[in-house]
Design a protein that fits this description.
Blueprint lengths: L22 H8 L2 E5 L5 E5 L2 H9 L3 E2 L24 H6 L3 H7 L2 H25 L3 E2 H18 L3 H14 L8 H19 L8 H13 L3 H35 L1 H9 L4 H11 L7 E5 L3 E3 L2 E3 L4 E4 L1 H5 L33 H18 L4 E2 L21 E3 L1
Parallel strand pairs: 2-8
Antiparallel strand pairs: 1-2, 3-5, 4-10, 5-8, 6-7, 9-10
This protein binds protoporphyrin IX containing FE.
Protoporphyrin IX containing FE binds next to helix 10 and helix 14.
């Protein structure tokens, strides 16, 4: 399948987020554990069946935290110094896990849902006042997501927009780091730090208020403040990028499958199930979920050595015909429970209720207000962003 002797396929696969890459089927059938080279030129194993993907995500032989070890194999250049990264593990370390998890609990999301609906409504008021066509990335999915994330995190709309715009520039998948990424990070961290240290932050709603109270109650240290600021930023990025990309690709699929969109519009009670199928169908995660093997093992008969980088191809698992009938067909009535769009095992997404609600509210509002939603340009003219962490169109011009 590939001219170079030491890889089986070129990586990354197609950046298009509207159709699953053809090579996915070939990989599953011929090379379910295939050799690729990452953006940094490091060798990696690409895993493309549902069975092997879920095994990697659930097996302790494959570690997420080992990715941060110095000198290890890389998926792409680390954009920020290691000290600028934090994870759920770090939250546990500083005793913050429960505080953070409460922010994303179904109860907290339910409390915030009115604000999500209001924002979606306001944006659609502007969009309908202007009339078609409108770019739904600039005018809907980005500002809506910034607002949703700002709401749950207790930040102002302006602060949410700054973080959303900033990370839209800098979170790239590139062979070498670049100056703008660090400058952008510092700008975002400085803004969040300043807000955390304001005396009235303890009265703020959402995560900011909870963290501000935590630091006052537990005695502040500069290290704890660093951790809190990083965590707020990292959660904003993890949540904002994922939800915005998923919503945008879902709108695109509804615009491409107009009969199903119309069915969903007239069957709003089926929205939860439809969102589950849109999650399965989503090609947003473009670069695989990475793990490092922490001991010698095997995968589908392929020996894997300690230190090897393994990439789980999400669309490989989600379009596997061994698990999903006619997987290339979008079917909003199917109930695709086994999809791995939120991962699996110990690192399973920490905020699935927020993720699903973000999409459900937005899609319901769009379908209700804009029947007949369709692409304003030929699908093959969509400009798919390269070198970015998600598969995403630069613009999504829609008519209704
Ligand atoms: C549609 C939206 C979302 C998708 C598709 C998504 C997907 C994922 C996936 C695939 C993982 C596992 C990564 C891996 O195993 O390598 C993950 C983990 C995580 N997600 Fe989400 N996510 C979404 C929304 C969110 C939101 C809104 C937040 C919170 C603000 C969030 C916070 C996290 C965190 C903190 C983890 C790490 C969990 C851990 O390491 O234990 N995600 N997400």
């Amino acid at each position: 399948m590939n001219a170079h002797a030491d890889v089986d396929v070129e990586w990354p696969l197609s950046r298009r987020g509207d159709v699953v890459p053809d090579v996915c089927t070939w990989l599953r059938e011929h090379k379910p554990v295939a050799r690729v080279r990452t953006f940094t030129g490091d060798p990696a194993w690409l895993v493309s069946t549902h069975e092997l993907a879920t095994r990697v995500l659930q097996d302790d032989a494959f570690s997420m935290s080992a990715l941060a070890a110095p000198g290890g194999r890389l998926q792409y250049a680390p954009l920020f110094p290691a000290s600028n990264r934090s994870s759920v593990k770090d939250m546990v370390g500083v005793g913050l896990r429960d505080t953070v998890m409460q922010t994303f609990s179904p109860h907290a999301v339910k409390e915030a849902i009115g604000a999500f609906r209001r924002k979606a409504g306001e944006l659609l008021d502007d969009i309908t006042a202007e009339g078609p066509p409108v770019d739904f990335r600039a005018r809907f999915t980005q500002p809506y997501t910034a607002s949703v994330m700002a709401t749950v995190m207790g930040l102002s709309e302006d602060h949410g927009r700054l973080l959303m715009d900033g990370f839209d520039i800098s979170i790239m998948t590139v062979p070498r780091t670049f100056e703008g990424a660090q400058v952008n990070l510092e700008k975002c961290l400085a803004r969040t730090r300043a807000r955390l240290l304001e005396p009235d932050a303890v009265d703020a709603p959402g995560l900011l208020g909870a963290l501000a109270r935590f630091r006052t109650e537990h005695g502040t240290t500069p290290e704890l403040d660093d951790e809190i600021v990083l965590m707020l930023n990292n959660l904003f990025v993890a949540g904002g990028l994922s939800t915005a990309a998923f919503l945008l690709l879902s709108l695109l699929q509804l615009a491409l499958h107009r009969d199903q969109a119309e069915w969903l519009r007239t069957h709003p009670e089926s929205m939860d199930r439809a969102v589950e199928e849109l999650l399965r169908y989503s090609l947003a995660i473009g670069d695989g979920l990475p793990r490092i093997a922490v001991r010698d093992t095997e995968l589908g008969g392929q020996p894997i050595s300690e230190g090897d980088l393994v990439l789980v191809l999400v669309e490989g698992a989600n379009y596997d015909p061994a698990v999903f009938d006619d997987p290339n067909r979008l079917d909003l009535t199917r109930n695709p429970k086994e999809h791995v769009t939120f991962g699996a095992g110990r690192h399973y997404c920490a905020a699935t209720c927020l993720a699903r609600t973000h999409a459900t509210v937005a899609l319901s509002a769009v379908l209700e207000r804009l029947p007949g939603l369709r692409l304003a340009i030929p699908p093959e003219e969509i400009n798919w962003r390269s070198g970015w962490i998600k598969r995403t169109p630069e613009r999504l011009p829609l008519l209704w």
